[in-house]
Design goal:
Layout: H1 4-23, H2 33-43, H3 47-60, H4 65-77, H5 81-94, H6 99-111, H7 115-128, H8 133-145, H9 149-162, H10 167-178, H11 185-190
Helix pairs in contact: 2-3, 3-4, 4-5, 5-6, 6-7, 7-8, 8-9, 9-10
Length: 191
Amino acid sequence: LCDGRGLAAALETAYREMWRRYLDGRPRPVADPERARMRQLRASGRLEEAHQLAERIVSVRPGDGDTWFQKGLIEGRMRDPVAAEESFRRALECVPEKATAHYNLGKILYDQGRLRESIECYREALRWDPALAIAYHNLGQSHWFLGEFDAALLHYRKALALRPDFAVTYSNVLYALSYNVMCPPERLLEE
């Protein structure tokens, strides 16, 4: 018969050896305890401490796009849109393809009423991540507040195609249709 403990130990040894061979010669990611701590502080709502740590990290590593991004998120939660905008822009200087940085910069601009600029940010986010449904939704919102209801409707529909469970977008589709004078009431019922 098979010895259960012996088999488990043999499998564990084989598994470790397999991974050792797989990883051999490849650079291993270095854990960054400061960045992990900053994220933990942000997640627990200790924003001042997280912000101080982010400031310290970017003062030492100004090319650290992820820390600039995290700093922007922290500043956004601290209701400092000017600082958040600057941090997201710095993140994008370091990592221009970071779709979530474009998206969050768009949110900051949208909240300040800078709708045309927010539209450009959302479009750039979608260029890098075409499956970012929330960017389509917010793009629709920006067009909505500019009175561009057809464009808003188009982007709401794209958001729903990616995320059919996005309830608030369904509501926005109905609002956009109700403001369209060319939309008969029967079509609203169909939606």
